Hints:
The chain is α+β, with helices and mostly antiparallel strands. It is 31% helix and 29% strand.
Amino acid sequence: MRPYGRAHDALRDVVIETGVSPYAEGSCLIKCGNTHVLCTATVEENVPPWMRNSGKGWVTAEYGMLPRATHTRMRREASSGKQSGRTQEIQRLIGRSLRAVVDLKALGERQITLDCDVIQADGGTRTAAITGAWVALKLAINWLIEEGVLKSDPVYGQLAAVSCGVVGGTARLDLEYEEDSQAETDANFVLTVDGGIVEIQATAEDKPLPEADFAELFALARKGVAELGEIQKSVL
């Protein structure tokens, strides 16, 4: 039996609340069960130095966890003077995932930064961050269009992300921490709602994963992303 009696192919309860940060060009708070992530989008009328005069814009991301996002207090990374390898890996994942569905030339020479701050963690923080960041990005783009800065939408694809895993020999969708910590295999899928693959991260912790089992996880991920996509559209 899964925590809270969920079916093996069921998402946690997902709620996305938009407009939670009045100063950001786009923002949302995404709640996937007990994982809560604040996602804000900031528009800047410049690009990194290496992109100047390229005629293209840039989309990037930063990720962090508040000290009491978990059961015990974590030190702020700023206090140690550097980001952990995990933090750097996740924020790069978020950034390149979003860039996969943005026409950077159509964006123009401006940068949009997605800040994803984990308020509460119970597994799947990176996937929740990606799903919420796409919403914040779209809201920021809508703002640019309303302000007359952009004439058309450079975001040409809709994406979301979800975790899957094999726990107790059973494939499950959207793992919470209790499941993730004992999974024989865990995977993160970043997919477009029409089935395109953006990125897949999968690791067999116990023994190699048969191809047939991977196919089952992939099918669960497609189902989950389709459902997340409907939630994204409903709040936009």
